[in-house]
Recover the amino acids of this structure.
């Protein structure tokens, strides 16, 4: 990355321009179904296991924190309600974001970056094929679909992990835990989390593709691109998460 | 029939560094041209500008009546179908085997049936001598094979213009000779416009109709092969003879006094060599199995005459 003051501005401008290009190219026929399925399978295969493994301790930590907090406040009957709310609303979109950027995005960025420095992308353009249409759009859509599914996975595994830790390890009452499930959380929380995951998937794939397609300077350039893509994606995802959460609370009336 | 490429006042810079400026030339339709230049004079950049992968700062590139520097992205993709480009390392898609690589443009751009695609792909693979290697991945074959596979892929859509980015880099002299013969044979067979970017002098002396030389951020000369091989321009003579004496230095250019001194010392030897007729390397002609179109018939006649005269002189 250049150190000139306009460098960062130009980078963000180019990134945004590519995001618009991607949106404009999505409806273009023929849809690259084969590439989409391959990529969806690929992104899923690199993210599912780490996601499940991360979401168990994540759910456990939330359960432990809330378990001790509710005991101190004397509100043990609400521990189930609080931990479901925490997992569903925040933990699962964040875990999804981390994994989709950390595992899916890096894989996409490294793949496209390697193709770029081997001049494969140039060759493709010269053969009259738009890499945005042929490569980037299927990856962005695949990443979005997988992010939505991952979010569901994280929610289930996180809630199950929370239940296990609260009930088995902290001697909570199973009945109270389950009964309070829906006292605070509501269906719109799940929808909001899924929409977040959808947006995170798109952002992670677009940033990764942008960084991959602009990689230069040999193998080291690909490494740099992957590194930058993770950092940029994390920053963007956390900011987006904050904004979307703030909007959600304004738009959807809360229970209780 | 090939297409003429008309380049006018082309200038390209990266930041403050000018790569070359005010390059104007016309690549005649159906002819073979070579662009020479010391390493790092932006030959590859020139090639990428011709296909619209890089945007020049100024100037125009007119192909089939359209200025590709001003085209919109989707129009550019249409014009690019006229091109076949051989990249330095072949630029094959690493995830596909050779057959799928070469079939790729056909599958993307045409509605041909698989059996028809198979026929065309095998024909092109035969042309570059790669039959039997269809199932190999690009990572499993040598650099020379990758280049030939890249060439087969570039040929598969029957392009009007074929650009070669250093076809001879990283190949042994024998393979270079075969590749040069292949290029000449192809030109006789498909009649497209060829541009070869290289710094291999031997190929530049044997293969082309026209030679251009990029040096010191500009196009020094561009003209017919005969004219350049007998040129008195110090840069041209230095480069075509691969000597240290002359304006081209190791790092950049040399200062004028030193160049003058070197050239004076060289003068006598040079004149003698030229008198002996060492300048005109015989031109490479299409192989015996190839039916020559009228253009190549004329070239062959001219060559035969030239060398008869030379033999008589000696």
């Amino acid at each position: 990355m250049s150190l000139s003051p306009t460098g960062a501005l130009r980078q963000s401008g180019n990134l945004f321009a590519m995001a618009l290009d991607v949106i404009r190219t999505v409806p273009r026929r023929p849809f690259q179904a084969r590439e989409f399925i391959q990529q969806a399978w690929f992104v899923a295969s690199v993210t599912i296991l780490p996601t499940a493994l991360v979401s168990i301790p994540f759910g456990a930590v939330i359960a432990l924190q809330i378990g001790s907090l509710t005991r101190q406040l004397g509100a043990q009957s609400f521990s189930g309600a609080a931990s479901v709310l925490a997992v569903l609303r925040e933990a699962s979109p964040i875990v999804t974001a981390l994994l989709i950027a950390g595992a899916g995005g890096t894989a996409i960025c490294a793949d496209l970056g390697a193709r770029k420095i081997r001049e494969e992308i140039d060759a493709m353009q010269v053969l009259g094929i738009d890499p945005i249409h042929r490569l980037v759009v299927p990856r962005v859509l695949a990443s979005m679909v997988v992010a939505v599914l991952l979010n569901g996975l994280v929610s289930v595994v996180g809630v199950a992990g929370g239940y296990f830790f609260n009930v088995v390890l902290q001697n909570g009452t199973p009945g109270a835990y389950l009964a309070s499930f829906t006292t605070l959380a509501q269906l719109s929380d799940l929808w909001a989390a899924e929409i977040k995951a959808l947006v995170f998937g798109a952002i992670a794939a677009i940033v990764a593709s942008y960084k991959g397609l602009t990689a230069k300077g040999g193998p080291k350039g690909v490494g740099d691109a992957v590194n930058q893509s993770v950092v940029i994606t994390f920053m963007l995802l956390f900011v987006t998460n904050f904004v979307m959460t703030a909007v959600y609370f304004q738009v959807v009336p809360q229970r209780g | 029939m090939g297409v003429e490429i008309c380049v006018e006042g082309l200038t390209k810079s990266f930041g403050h560094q000018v790569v070359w400026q005010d390059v104007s030339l016309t690549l005649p339709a159906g002819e073979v041209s070579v662009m020479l230049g010391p390493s790092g004079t932006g030959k590859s950049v020139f090639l990428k500008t011709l296909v619209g992968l890089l945007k020049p700062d100024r100037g125009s590139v007119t192909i089939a009546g359209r200025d590709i520097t001003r085209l919109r992205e989707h129009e550019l993709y249409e014009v690019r179908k006229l091109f076949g480009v051989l990249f330095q390392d072949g630029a094959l898609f690493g995830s596909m085997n050779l057959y799928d690589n070469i079939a790729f443009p056909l599958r993307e751009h045409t509605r041909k049936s698989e059996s028809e695609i198979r026929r065309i792909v095998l024909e092109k693979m035969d042309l570059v001598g790669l039959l039997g290697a269809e199932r190999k991945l690009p990572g499993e074959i040598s650099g020379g094979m990758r280049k030939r596979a890249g060439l087969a892929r570039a040929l598969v859509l029957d392009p009007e213009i074929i650009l070669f980015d250093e076809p001879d880099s990283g190949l042994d002299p024998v393979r270079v000779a075969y590749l040069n013969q292949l290029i000449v044979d192809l030109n006789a067979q498909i009649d497209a416009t060829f541009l070869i970017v290289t710094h291999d002098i031997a190929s530049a002396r044997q293969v082309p109709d026209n030679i251009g030389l990029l040096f010191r951020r500009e196009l020094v000369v561009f003209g017919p092969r005969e004219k350049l091989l007998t040129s008195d321009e110090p840069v041209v003579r230095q480069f075509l003879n691969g000597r240290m004496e002359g304006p081209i230095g190791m790092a950049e250019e040399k200062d004028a006094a030193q160049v003058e001194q070197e050239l004076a010392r060289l003068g006598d030897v040079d004149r003698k060599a030229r008198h002996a007729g060492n300048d005109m390397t015989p031109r490479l002609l299409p192989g015996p199995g190839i039916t020559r179109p009228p253009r190549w018939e004329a070239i062959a006649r001219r060559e035969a005459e030239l060398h008869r005269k030379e033999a008589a002189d000696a």
Notes: The interface with chain B takes residues 114-115, 118-120, 122-130, 134 of chain A (CB under 8 Å).
